[in-house]
Structure formats: C-alpha cells, structure tokens
Amino acid sequence: MKKTIILSAFILASGAAFAQEDKLAALDTDNDGRISIEEAAADAELSAAFAELDTNQDGYLTPSELAEH
Predict the structure, then answer these.
(1) What 3-state DSSP class applies to 61?
(2) For 28-51, how does the pLDDT look when each residue is reduced to its tens digit (9 = 90+)?
C-alpha cells in the first residue's frame, strides 16, 4: 500500500512537471528557455499571475519559477 501511494505521488508530480515544460515550450517563442511578460500575454491565466510567479523580479519566468507554483 505504501509503495502504491509513493508511486502515485511520483506519477502526479511527474505529470505536473511535464505540463510546466509543455507550457514553457509553447509560450517561449524566442526559445531562450524562459517566458517574458510579452510571451506570457498569450496565456491569460499566466499573464495575470506573472508578477507573483516572477519571484526574482527579473521580468522573466524560468522553469524553476514555474515549478515552485
């Protein structure tokens, strides 16, 4: 039972990571590995949360910043 719970948690976490990678790839139109505020404008939900997600306040969202939320 314990192994099943751990495996399920891992699968869910992996799915979330892939979803973030897909979002990054889809929105990163200049292929620099991060999302600018201009690129984020293509996703209303991400654009609305941009300032909160940009934890280092550099004007870009990185994979690690997306993974934190």
Answers:
(1) strand
(2) 999 999 999 999 999 999 999 999
Q: How many residues does the chain have?
A: 69
What are the C-alpha distances in Å from 26 to residues 33, 43, 61, 68? 11, 10, 13, 19
pTM assigned to the model: 0.69
- At residue 63, what is the residue type? P
Interval 13-32: pLDDT, tens? 444 444 567 878 899 999 99
What does the H/E/C string look like for 21-60? Answer: HHHHHHHCCCCCCCEEHHHHCCCHHHHHHHHHHCCCCCCE
